[in-house]
């Protein structure tokens, strides 16, 4: 389905087009579109053929969840938009993967844009570089230097959620296992997703995305601990590059998470009719998690700033150690140079010059002087 030519376009390519024009906007090619349809109620749950969507919307005797992964097939997305009676600007925002996380309320539905951040591996090797995807889906260096294996990465993708009366539709920028746990819970007869309405499903999808943030933060925390130890032990230029990369990418993550908190807070504050009061309680829990994540993120950013000061302090201490050693060596050689200078003068009447034990005596005096100075330095705890 996906052609070999590059079809990813930037925002500027839509200049002059009328509002609501359906065109994918992003830094990478859209993936093939895959549609899954689930119908559920308190006593049942089953997956339906996407071709039966029109019939399901005509009957509307149960809750419907449509999960769309990949934004390649514009006709299929438009078809779903017609069934959900989505505003053309909403469809345009769904296809624009550069969107900032936000919440919008319309007459018949709620539109929510989130960012899914996840790490595709484990921080178990600090010898290679890794790439992630920026806010537009483009690959960028997540942490330069030594961080992850080449087959591990951290990625960010856009997720759009539509909540209507008895229906939820989620649009993922790319196919993933993001909502596999939700599907599993849907087919559990004791699950709350079945007992409650579609607004609870919207909450569950949002909570699933937020929970992924914690996994990413735990891995970043492990990396920060390792980096702190290497700053003190090594303090080379490569560590400095990692500190700068860490600060840049913590800023990137902040741009992803901070608007999500605003969007969830907007839903709680407005309490739209499509969301019951008991679901607002669950959304408050999501909001608490987002506040906790932001606190952790701010502490990480402060630590990264402190790393720079630790790095400079470590360099300064090492330079002081070097200067101390050089100073001690120079201090020891000052009296030795003085003795050698005296007996290096070209005077005729110097009795020690004709003495047969003059040379070994001068060497003994020099060694004794150096030894006495070393003992003195040790007593003063300078060495």
Automatic annotation (TrEMBL):
Gene3D superfamilies: CorA soluble domain-like, Magnesium transport protein CorA, transmembrane region. It comes from the Archaea. The chain crosses the membrane at residues 325-345, 357-377. GO terms for cellular component: plasma membrane. The keyword Iron does not apply. It is a multi-pass membrane protein. Its main location: membrane. Keywords: Cell membrane, Ion transport, Magnesium, Membrane, Transmembrane, Transmembrane helix, Transport. It is found in: Cell membrane; Membrane. Mediates influx of magnesium ions. This is Magnesium transport protein CorA. It comes from Methanoplanus limicola DSM 2279. The lineage of its organism: Archaea, Methanobacteriati, Methanobacteriota, Stenosarchaea group, Methanomicrobia.
